[in-house]
Automatic annotation (TrEMBL):
One Gene Ontology MF term: lyase activity
Biological role stated in the UniProt entry: Catalyzes two reactions in de novo purine nucleotide biosynthesis. Catalyzes the breakdown of 5-aminoimidazole- (N-succinylocarboxamide) ribotide (SAICAR or 2-[5-amino-1-(5-phospho-beta-D-ribosyl)imidazole-4-carboxamido]succinate) to 5-aminoimidazole-4-carboxamide ribotide (AICAR or 5-amino-1-(5-phospho-beta-D-ribosyl)imidazole-4-carboxamide) and fumarate, and of adenylosuccinate (ADS or N(6)-(1,2-dicarboxyethyl)-AMP) to adenosine monophosphate (AMP) and fumarate.
Pathway in which the depicted protein is active: Purine metabolism; IMP biosynthesis via de novo pathway; 5-amino-1-(5-phospho-D-ribosyl)imidazole-4-carboxamide from 5-amino-1-(5-phospho-D-ribosyl)imidazole-4-carboxylate: step 2/2; Purine metabolism; AMP biosynthesis via de novo pathway; AMP from IMP: step 2/2
Name of the protein in question: Adenylosuccinate lyase
Annotated SUPFAM superfamilies: L-aspartase-like (SSF48557)
Domain Fumarate lyase N-terminal: 23-272
Pfam families xref list: ASL_C, Lyase_1
Length: 424
């Protein structure tokens, strides 16, 4: 309704076909009606569509009736002028989708990213045993691991925000044929471009009857990618909770299990995980379907596009759950410290790398540093004293020995803390 009203006002403002421009007060009243329509208009559309069996034609008739009610009958034939239904539909979807992403989805996404950024900065120095392939690995910091997620999400955010919202307004098969016959002297491509961009959309000059939906497919692919990064976050946080690295803050009145009073279930992250999967399934289907239309037009896009709100809605639910869930967890330094202290063998990487440097510098004659450490540590638990005795017996320089003897799993985090600064 908004697009239909804006188009007829646009034509009238330019005096097309000798039509007198609409007075400002009348134009604003018409716009307000279209912008704020409610149940009476919905009911009337349903009544009209029962006869027309065509949704856009029903909208056209409703707009015509409104013009009559406002004493603007002289504008009647500018309603839906030279338009195919898809001219109206693609602009409507473009306006709605742009608003949904920019005014609703992105602000919620940004709130999650900002919460993660805050946690990353707070926990940048908190040592944590890493786990590659589910096995103890070179330590990191909890903040650095969160920073990895933030960095990934920031990258996708830039790509989502940069997506264009292409729109067409060129008639039955994208040729301006009816337009040109009606008024051969008009610069219809310029008129179309000006109208489309006035609605905040990007003009597409080359289309069939429909806008090709490539912009939508790109957008849905990028949001799905962001969803999958968030899904990775949800499963990792769930795992850290199960490992005891994170504790859940009890919420007053909440029940974790109907039978086990002690439990606090990580439901926020489980709900986020499920909603992200549903969102991706729909977004993937939309992106795949919308890029194909038989010859100059088929209606497969019409059905699938009705699920755009559902796809974004599941993602929005996930963002809500993640934001709330991240506010209900706390890092458990004792558990992190205990796990680090129980896995001194992770220093094997440091020891064999130092030996290699010593060999290269001519301060050691050890033949195969990797094999030496593999024999000592692979599949075994090594204690602090085991490694200290081993280091003291190594054929390496005294300075290197001192560095290794001073090293602990908790201090073997490299530049993890400093890397958080790359968040900017």
């Amino acid at each position: 309704m908004r697009v239909e009203v804006e188009w007829l006002l646009f034509l009238a403002a330019r005096g097309m076909f000798g039509v007198t421009p609409v007075e400002a007060q009348q134009a604003e009243a018409l716009r307000a009606w279209a912008e704020h329509f409610g149940q009476p208009e919905i009911d009337e559309l349903a009544r009209l569509e029962a006869t027309t069996r065509h949704d856009v034609k029903a909208v056209e008739y409703l707009v015509r009736a409104r013009l009559t009610a406002q004493g603007l009958d002289h504008l009647a034939e500018l309603t839906h002028f030279a338009c195919t239904s898809e001219d109206i539909n693609n602009l409507s979807y473009g306006i709605t989708l742009r608003a949904a992403v920019q005014q609703v989805w992105l602000p919620r996404f940004d709130a999650v990213v900002e919460k993660l950024r805050t946690l990353a900065l707070e926990q940048r120095d908190q040592p944590m045993l890493a786990h590659t392939h589910g096995q103890p690995a070179t330590p990191t910091t909890f903040g650095k691991e969160l920073a990895v997620v933030v960095h990934r999400l920031q990258r996708q955010r830039m790509r989502i925000a940069a997506v264009e919202f292409p729109a067409k307004f060129s008639g039955a098969t994208g040729t301006f044929s009816a337009h040109l016959v009606a008024e051969p002297s008009a610069e219809w491509t310029s008129i179309s471009r000006e109208f489309v961009t006035s609605l905040g959309l990007d003009w597409n000059p080359l289309t069939t009857q429909i806008e090709s939906h490539d912009g939508q497919a790109e957008l849905f692919g990028r949001i799905a990618h962001a969803n999958r990064i968030l899904h990775n976050l949800a499963t990792d946080v769930w795992t850290y909770i199960s490992m005891g690295y994170l504790t859940q803050i009890p919420q007053a009145g909440a029940t974790g299990s109907s039978t086990m009073p002690h439990k606090i279930n990580p439901i926020r992250f489980e709900n986020a995980e499920a909603n992200l999967e549903l969102s991706c399934a729909l977004l993937d289907s939309l992106a795949a379907t919308l890029t194909t239309s038989r010859l100059q037009r088929d209606l497969t896009d019409s059905t699938t596009q009705r699920n755009i709100g559902v796809a974004l809605g599941h993602s929005l639910l996930a963002l809500d759950n993640l934001l709330k869930g991240l506010g209900e967890i706390a890092v458990n330094p004792d558990a992190l410290a205990a796990d680090l202290d129980a896995n001194w063998e992770v220093l094997g990487e440091a020891i064999q790398t130092v030996i290699r440097a010593e060999v290269a510098a001519g301060r050691s004659r050890i033949a195969d540093p990797y094999a030496l450490l593999k024999e000592l540590t692979r599949g075994k638990r090594a204690t602090a004293s085991d490694l200290a005795d081993f280091i003291r017996g190594l054929d390496i320089g005294d300075a290197a020995k001192e560095r290794l003897l001073a090293l602990t799993p908790a201090t073997y985090t490299g530049l993890a803390s400093e890397l958080v600064d790359y968040l900017g």
